[in-house]
Write a structure and sequence with these properties.
The chain is built from 33 helices and 23 strands. With 798 residues, it is an alpha/beta fold. Helix 7 packs across helix 8, helix 16 packs across helix 22 and helix 22 crosses helix 23. The chain starts with 9 loop residues before the first strand and ends in a 20-residue tail after the last strand. It comes from Actinomadura madurae. InterPro entries: CoA-transferase_III (IPR050509), CoA-Trfase_fam_III (IPR003673), CoA-Trfase_III_dom3_sf (IPR044855), CoA-Trfase_III_dom_1_sf (IPR023606). Keywords: Transferase.
Amino acid sequence: MTGSEPPRLRVVEISGGVGGPVCGRLFAGLGHDVVRCEPAGGDPLRRRPPLNAAGTGLEFVALNADKDAVRIGSGDAGARDLHRLLDLADVAVLDLTPAAAAELGLGADGLRERWPRLVAVWILGFGRDGAYRDIPGDSLLAEAYGGLATMIGEPDRRPLGLGGEQAAYCAGVTGFLGAMLALRRRDAGHGGDLVEVTMCDVVAYMDWKSDVAESMTGRPPMRSGADPGDWRLVRARDGWVGFIFQQKHWAQVVELVGAPELADPLLADESHRQARAAEWWPVVERWAVERSAEDIYRLAQRLGLPFGWAARASDLVRSPQLRHRGFITPEPDPGGSTPAVGTPVHTAGLPWRSGTAPEPADRMPERWTSRPPGTVPGPRPPSGTAPLSGIVVLDFGTITAGAAVTRLLADYGATVLKIEWTDRPDTFRSWKMPDPAGGAATAPTSPYFPSNNAGKLGVAVNLKTPEGREVVHRLARRSHILVENYRVGVTRRLGIDADTIRAVNPDLLYLSLSSQGQDGPEAGNSSYGSTLDLLSGLASVTGYEADRPLWSSSDVNYPDQLVSLFGAAFLAYCLQRGIEGVHLDVSQREVVSWTLAAEIADHLVNGNDAAPHGNRRPGRTPHDTYPCSEPGTWIAISCFTDRHRDALAALAAPAALAGHDEAWWWSHEDLVDTEVTGWTRRRTRKEAIAELLAAGVPAVPVLDAAGRRDEPGFASRGVTLATCQGPVKGLPMRLHGHAPRPPVTAPGLGAHTRAVLRDLGRMSDEEIDDLEGRGVIHCGPEASPSPIRAPEPRSDQP
């Protein structure tokens, strides 16, 4: 930790949705002064079910705990009151449409001109221009237009949004990350900035695998449902369990089930298993249906299998793992006036608040009477450079969760050393991919690999040797951050655990992104993203109504994407606040469960156990996807107000739908669905969208990867980048004051070993040649020159 506590940040939140409160909640939970501005009629989220004992929305409580609230009137008087708050703020968080922001005298240019030291985070549904700019931010609409809904659900049924408000939560976390990066630049003398976060861009960023697959096969991928290949959701006696395994795990699967039919040696070959799936999967299903889902999960994990089971809110509340770590509030308020969950980030250096949500006052808090203090201590980027320039990162991240964190750090200027070994490279280098179109040769490195690793330096070190561990320790002395997402226990065996590394460099920030955290009865368990879909509770609220749960599947692995944004955000926070020498213990499961705080609270307060409800969401109806006349084309509609519903009724079925209130529309969902579907089926997607937008009904097309590529807004905002290694995911946000230089390539294995050890490790070529000759390091083919500026050691040790 730093010697002096930096001043608290002042944050003004002007919100009309969910993404802004998510961003503001991160500031408030970490102890900063957040004032949310509410209209005279109050925030609709206050009244949105599920409700607590006092009639307040549990989502509102979860997202607005520990904030202050003030009423802001309409017209010029309200704008003046808001502007006075902004005069005193470090950060503003908006999730208004451009039209709503303009009514308050706020716009992109005006924010930067009137408040030059302010960092403004603007969360938009669909950008500041284009046909959809004034549609409020809605998770289903963003997931539809961003391409994710095409990937969720069964192939012969309608596209689905993920359960809860996933797009909004991811946008809020992205906004928090952007704020920290912009504050670092402000503190270095660059002034404030506008951080533009577009929800559909964040969605597209998370669905980057679809861009890669489409570029390989020439066909955009589609939703594969619950049974994609070797990974399936199987019914157990009392629920559902995810059979999740790689080729290397087959022997353990055979041991788990214990059926002689699975012991056939031919089934050890993946191609044989696929050809004979109708023969052996029923054996598995008969075995599973006689056992509880949780028991199967525990038996599988003991064998090293990354299985999961579809936990519901009631299961999360009683989970020994979540209670051990304090994620489930130890003594939750039975009335639901405080959040039911804590923080997924555990460290002594970051206390977390979980108080009550505010009632709106008529004036700003008394402590907001003068301008905020200046900068805070900590390593600052040199003048005129990227926000993370000068930061050195040791990257032990693999696949996505860890590797995508460090890709984000590299994008914004950090020097990232991707450390692997020839016998233990990042698994994504050889990840199985779809067959290329036209019989083209399969690339030696998986096309997935560059998206999480572009812009890094490749270093190959054998950590199974004492000399290899000393090489890493030597690099750690000159580094600021280490990131790893190994299974608990692996880093200690390799000599790179937090205690060992911080003994070498006491100031280093150490981020662990393990499946379930570093302690607790399930800490040693393994997982993939689909495992976390299940264990987090997300799968239990994703799916078609009254049907089985659904996961995001290995084609998306949504939890990995959210976790990477979360990890990068908290590292950037520590850097901005001058926090050093802490171990950030992040549970990937808890990060995803954190987005379901309202569902967990609903069980604790009201006894409800959330289940899949298709695309239905409280406070918006109709809220669903609808087919159009062209085969396989869909649109998404979300009506927030009676005005929206009246306009839709006038278009689709005036006789059946006109003149009814929200409660009627909600209770007559089947009738509404029939009428709206009949209307959309008579129109092309383009025709339906044009008529709906002209009538003022919020609607967007449901895009796939190909459709997304053809939409100019995604390309202009840099969501996907074209490189010599194929399409690579771009950026989830835009800092108006800093445009990162696009990464060129991902490193080859050990491509920069010599340069890094020479320039950063200060080793001679003779020392490097000796280490390579003894199998301690590997120097791959030299990449293009990458000058590395070697910082001074970060501790007193040599």
